[in-house]
Amino acid sequence: MDEYTDRAYVSRYGAAEFGLQVMREGVPGDADSPVTATLLRDGEAPTEVFSRAAEHPGAGEYLVRLTSRETATPGPYVLVWTYTVAGVDEEWRVWLEVGKSAPSYDILAEPMKNIIETTWTRFSDLFDFATEGPHLQTYIQSNFGRNRLAQLLRIAVGRLNTVAQPFQTYTIDGDGGASFPVERWGPLLESALYVECLRHLIRSYVEQPEVQSGSGVSRLDRRDYMDRWSEVLGTEEPVLKQQLEVFKISNMGLGRARVLVSGGVFGRWGPTRLPLSHAARPRYMTRMY
Q1: Which pLDDT band, with edges at 50, 70 and 90, does 162 fall under?
Q2: What are φ and ψ of residue 182, in 5° steps?
Q3: Which of the two residues, 132 and 66, has the higher pLDDT score?
Q4: Beta bridge partners of 52
């Protein structure tokens, strides 16, 4: 098992879809025969969850849908596509992670899920956890994951709406207001969510107890994680502030700047005998041949 491979995320009991595009001579084309999709529970001895023919919705397109029963057990998985093109056997693998049940994440539209995934990537290479993400996940009472990020996303959008003029009413799902314009302002939302995650981590480490030693048992001291995350927050907030200023100014309805041309305010027939009227007269350009 390659436990350190980046994995596509599926929440427990989530109904996910995965697709394969087959290309022949640079254009979409069908495989020689039906494409087979096999889901394996990843490990030293992989176990098969299912193996079935993929759906074939279009030229060169193949699709497999995972049911809630097939994603009922959290853990690492690998989806194996096997097919034949021009008589040559081919294989493609997609590594998956079935995580905790995440209803707040599951109901989001795909653009919002992408915001969460790009934000999660910023935590992917932290040192003190076996696979990816902050050490906070080690504790049973902690629920730091995609579902928590989905909840923090709502807070982030609310902060963007209210932190400065003009007041706005964007939402993450279109309920009670227009959905946040991810296509145009996605980088801003990523920064806002990342900053909210940093604040959440700082709050979460507030109650770390001191090291207690005795009877040969000791506990690692991670209280300074709060200070370290505070330092990271201090470097990220100025970036968010700059992005937020551009966002708010663009939503003030100030219009676009215009430049007066062809003779200033009086056009070509500006006055010639008024005091200081030379400033209002057009400037003629002469070309000599």
Answers
A1: very high
A2: -65, -35
A3: 66
A4: 37
